[in-house]
Amino acid sequence: MLKASDVRGVIPAVVTPFDRNSRVDYKSLEEIIRFLVSNGVHALMPVGGTGEFPHLLNEEKLDVIKTVVNVAGGKVPIIPGTAACSTHEAILLSNQASEAGADAVILTPPYYFKLPDKSILEHFTTVARNIDCPLFVYNNPLYTGNNISPPLLAELLKEEKIIGLKQSNPDIGQLVEVIRLSPEGLSLCTGIDSQFYPALCIGAAGIFSTAAVVIPAQMVKLYNLFREKKHEEALELHMKLQKLNTFLEYDPGYVAPAKEALNILGLPGGYLRSPMPELSIDERKQIENALREIGEL
Q1: What tens digit of pLDDT does each residue of 126-166 get?
Q2: 158 assigned to active site
Q3: Do residues 189 and 153 lie in contact, with contact meaning Cβ atoms separated by under 8 Å?
Q4: List 61, 138, 221, 271, catalytic entry
Q5: What φ, ψ does residue 248 adopt, rounded to 5°?
Q6: How wide is the angle at C-alpha 148 spanned by C-alphas 220 and 56, nearest 5°?
Q7: Non-local CB neighbours of 99 within 8 Å, separated by 6+ positions
Q8: Is 166 a catalytic residue?
Q9: Which residue in 109, 150, 247, 287 could disulfide with 177, CB within 3.0 to 4.6 Å?
Q10: Which residue is catalytic, options 166, 197, 221, 259?
Q11: Does 250 have pLDDT greater than 80?
Q12: What is the mean pLDDT of residues 88-105?
């Protein structure tokens, strides 16, 4: 079974390519996975927000997971998203993902309804105790409407099967506090590309990253520079990559920019699934310029 110590470094949040008719393009997905693995990433996260999970049918989610597992071939851990509004569905999806070959799963808290801390605690602990694989908590309050406070996260991280965190709260101080309050040895990661180097400096294990699906080699290089204690070089690279990161966070939303960037680079990012909005001509030009400025074109 996957351990927290097995999950470190750069974990791309994988896009789900669609064709012109809004069908999942599995051949393109296979190409993207081969591209990521060949560039040295440390794990893969399909069927998350970057993978447009709210737009996927459950059978599509499982087919995507199976495809990623098969193409990765055991070279890196596979940690798909299995978030759901109900605890019952989250357990079902998580066990199906495990049966499909996932090494762990990652869940946001339930979304749509505003929930008290007690309900969030019960949701995650119930899921963890009723699934067959380890679990990562994914805190993304902007999209779920339910922030998980540092004390609550620290409490959740005491649960045996909960081995890590993707912290996508833009307040990096909350990540600092989670790291301070939590037991050692867990895989506590940021989920925000602009926080990557600062998060490593405060003790984060790595990053679940949208940028890494586009520029995996440069993100892996940044991580390696940090590990080698080459901090000036790591900071310089982080600041350079920020030119692209600004398009891969909250405005104009990270999915369309990630797919557009892949397409510009000649990789099959594919189309969006409705109602995800397309980028404007000006936004596409800005992304192309950012890729050129960081040396990808």
Answers
A1: 999 999 999 999 999 999 999 999 999 999 999 999 999 99
A2: no
A3: no
A4: 138
A5: -120, 25
A6: 65
A7: 132
A8: yes
A9: 150
A10: 166
A11: no
A12: 98
Pull the structure tokens for residue 94: 């998580």
Please say whether the beta carbons of 151 and 180 come within 8 A: no
Please state the domain extents for the chain: 4-230
Mean pLDDT of all residues in the chain?
Answer: 97
List, in sequence order, every beta strand (DSSP E) within the chain.
9-12, 105-107, 135-139, 162-167, 187-190, 206-209
pLDDT band at residue 253, thresholds of 50, 70 and 90? confident
Report, in this order, helix, strand and coil percent for the chain, each rounded to 5: 50, 10, 40
CA 234 vs CA 37, 239, 292: distances in Å: 22, 9, 20
Whether the Cβ atoms of residue 279 and residue 260 lie closer than 8 Å to each other: yes
Q: 102: which residues sit within 8 A by CB, 6+ positions away?
A: 65, 69, 78, 79, 80, 133
